[in-house]
Every structure is written in structure tokens, then in C-alpha cells.
Write a structure and sequence with these properties.
The protein has 6 helices and 9 strands, in the order E-E-E-H-E-E-H-E-H-E-E-H-H-E-H. The chain has 203 residues and is α/β, with parallel strands linked by helices. A hairpin with a 2-residue loop joins strand 2 and strand 3. Helix 2 packs antiparallel against helix 4.
């Protein structure tokens, strides 16, 4: 498959937002998932949404909804694994993941992740904070289908921290600028919606 499949990670519990699906919250007149899909479509092949519970709430997006294959909400890596299992069925050798609550991720995310990939085929996005410290954004990554059984074994063994697994496999890092704002700004609280609308207005 020439164009890498994309998986939108929407499986979080949104506790700081009062529960519900953050991806369905509205920013500047559009749901977060609308913003994310529009940004990802030009960069990827087929798309899917990783989410648990009733998939019908995402029906109007017309995308496959992939539930975690592991119980008890083990975190974003379970969504990555669900995406890798889906992509294996498509004959793809990798996927790109993005978070459903992060509407401004870079328009060249996929190309830059591919360019940064380590020998294992893994890469994560990163950007500097206000003090210049580089932060990895592990829900924004390029993931190799060949590693899905290794990931499944790690998750079943209790691993939850993404970077522990990606560092084990020598993931590359694609660094993005935080000027004029961090493109990986994510929406966790109602106040963050106001900040996102300010960014939209300034863009």
C-alpha cells in the first residue's frame, strides 16, 4: 500500500472535560474530529477512528471504528495496536496515529515522520516548550505493522508508557517548531476550547 493508513486516537475518557468524547466537542463551529480529519486526509491513505463503546456515535464520519482489543482502557498504545491490526488486514506495513483532541497538528506531519523513522520503522513527533525543552508527543507517531505482536506482548505484560516501548525499538524523532504556537496543543478542559478558538482566529 503506497499511502500510509491513518488512525485517529479517540479512546480517551476525557475526565477533565467532564466525560464524553472530546472529539465531538465544537471549536470554531466544527467538531474536533472534523478539524482532525480535514488535516489528515491530504496526508494519509484510508482513515479509521480508535474508540471504545458504541461506534454508532461516529457513524456520520463514514470511517471504520476500531475498539481496543485489550480490556480496561490500557491507554493510547492499545489504540495503536488496534490500528496496527486493522492495517495488517489492509496489507499495509505501517500506520500514522494522531490524537482526536489536537486540531492543529502539522500539515507535513506524515512526511516528516517518515523521514525521521528509525531502522525499526518507528518515529514520534516532538516540539519544544516555552523554555526550549523538547517534548515528545507519543500519540503522534509512525508505527510498523511488523512490531504489532511485540507491542501486544508488552501491553499484556503491563506496559503503559509509550516512550518506554518506542525507545526500546529506537524510534526516530521528528521535531516541529512551536512558533507561533505549539501545533500539538491539545484540548483537555473547557478553557482549552477558548484557547483553540483564539488560535483559529489568529490563523
Amino acid at each position: 500500500m503506497s499511502s500510509v493508513p491513518g488512525v485517529i486516537l479517540a479512546g480517551g475518557l476525557a475526565t477533565r472535560m467532564g466525560g464524553g468524547d472530546k472529539g465531538l466537542k465544537v471549536v470554531a463551529g466544527k467538531r474536533l474530529l472534523d478539524h482532525v480529519v480535514a488535516r489528515l486526509v491530504p496526508q494519509c491513505g484510508p482513515l479509521a477512528i480508535n474508540a471504545n463503546g458504541d461506534p454508532a456515535r461516529f457513524a456520520e464520519f463514514g470511517l471504520p471504528v476500531l475498539a481496543d482489543g485489550l480490556p480496561d482502557y490500557p491507554g493510547p498504545l492499545a489504540g495503536v495496536l488496534a490500528g496496527l491490526d486493522w492495517a495488517a488486514g489492509l496489507g499495509a506495513d505501517s500506520i500514522v496515529t494522531v490524537a482526536a483532541d489536537t486540531p492543529f497538528f502539522p500539515a507535513d506531519l506524515v512526511a516528516r515522520l517518515k523521514a525521521a523513522a528509525g531502522p525499526s520503522g518507528l518515529a514520534l513527533a516532538a516540539s519544544p516548550d516555552a523554555g526550549g525543552k523538547l517534548w515528545q508527543h507519543p500519540t503522534f507517531g509512525l508505527w510498523a505493522v511488523a512490531l504489532r505482536d511485540d507491542l501486544r506482548e508488552a501491553l499484556e505484560g503491563g506496559l503503559r508508557k509509550i516512550v518506554l516501548w518506542t525507545e526500546r525499538h529506537g524510534a526516530g524523532i521528528a521535531e516541529f517548531s512551536s512558533d507561533p504556537f505549539d501545533p500539538f496543543f491539545n484540548i483537555n478542559t473547557p478553557e482549552d476550547i477558548g484557547e483553540a478558538e483564539r488560535i483559529v482566529g489568529a490563523a
